[in-house]
Fold this sequence. Notes:
Layout: H1 2-18, E1 22-31, E2 36-42, E3 46-54, E4 61-63, E5 67-69, E6 76-81, E7 89-96, E8 99-100, E9 107-110, E10 124-129, H2 151-159, E11 163-167, H3 181-192, H4 198-203, E12 205-209, H5 212-215, H6 227-237, E13 253-257, E14 260-264, H7 286-298, E15 304-308, H8 326-338, E16 344-348, E17 355-361, E18 364-370, E19 399-406, E20 413-420, E21 425-432
Parallel strand pairs: 10-11, 11-12, 14-15, 15-16, 16-18
Antiparallel strand pairs: 1-2, 2-6, 3-4, 3-5, 3-7, 7-8, 7-9, 10-19, 13-14, 17-18, 19-20, 20-21
Helix pairs in contact: 3-6
Amino acid sequence: xxxxxxxxxxxxxxxxxxxxxxxxxxxxxxxxxxxxxxxxxxxxxxxxxxxxxxxxxxxxxxxxxxxxxxxxxxxxxxxxxxxxxxxxxxxxxxxxxxxxxxxxxxxxxxxxxxxxxxxxxxxxxxxxxxxxxxxxxxxxxxxxxxxxxxxxxxxxxxxxxxxxxxxxxxxxxxxxxxxxxxxxxxxxxxxxxxxxxxxxxxxxxxxxxxxxxxxxxxxxxxxxxxxxxxxxxxxxxxxxxxxxxxxxxxxxxxxxxxxxxxxxxxxxxxxxxxxxxxxxxxxxxxxxxxxxxxxxxxxxxxxxxxxxxxxxxxxxxxxxxxxxxxxxxxxxxxxxxxxxxxxxxxxxxxxxxxxxxxxxxxxxxxxxxxxxxxxxxxxxxxxxxxxxxxxxxxxxxxxxxxxxxxxxxxxxxxxxxxxxxxxxxxxxxxxxxxxxx
Length: 437
């Protein structure tokens, strides 16, 4: 009997020792030609390394600089692969204290191509979505669970997009979280640990913006006193290549993926109340708009994607649409038109439904793709009277957007398919870069 007990003890101990120290992830962050970021959250303090290799040459490995998983930083580490070549796929593993923690998992990242002056840019794909509520009953509001249909994350992973852009409300802070760093980090940790999310985290490269629910309380604006803490958490749990471009605060940044440019706007850091009577109402703020206009003017990309949490082209002054900030919205659209900026497509979330908007503002064509929600509630709505809504694009259940970019450098094409929780196509629309010629 003692031998049997001792044998069982050894077996259980071996199983426990074999358990991975990875709590969530790994997640692929930004991808550049000479560098890639990999994010991971551990279960306990340890020294973490990224071990990686060219996919076709597994015997020749490289290592990142070791990083300590620190409880003060929620045991999150950012690992940089900086011994890489452009346009190359790499396999990788996460090592902690010298031991491989990702055995049995096929993990890959890919660096961006060096196509300039050599060939046409490649075809590539982008997943977009917003509003990802992950239930935690003891902290949720009483009643019917608000989060649902988590399998949508598995369906996005099945498509293996080249990148995914999260359009805000990626985490829903709760009342217990708003006013402490501890609560904010616990909420991010809980949401990121969702089992159905893990495969997607390593299936593509992720970029993100925020909206009110990952910035602070519902409808929060610039006065939220703990935005420094939520900014810290956002930087810890995402892998964008920069935050607060050109000394701007908040999460504002930009990046290039293949031949397209992406501008990640912050619609919370400077946001005022929309009903002020003693001063001008602002959502983006003067400095951010100036940076955006000059960045767009500089860009030669056929499509220029502007990611922002609030809807921009929806004409109705409801909820938190940009239409509530009429003067600033008018200023932004007027300046895009006056500068002759072509190829502008807004990517937005927030509204718990999807739609595509199109308008011609002072002779300039503008598009908006709204994708929401990923896993949050979505009450049925009727047509709101939005004058820019494209017919047949309104959908109010869980969904994500899938964007396919193809064609030669001088004639790029964007194919949009909005997909349901099962990955089935709801509708498609096509936008040609030649439309702006």
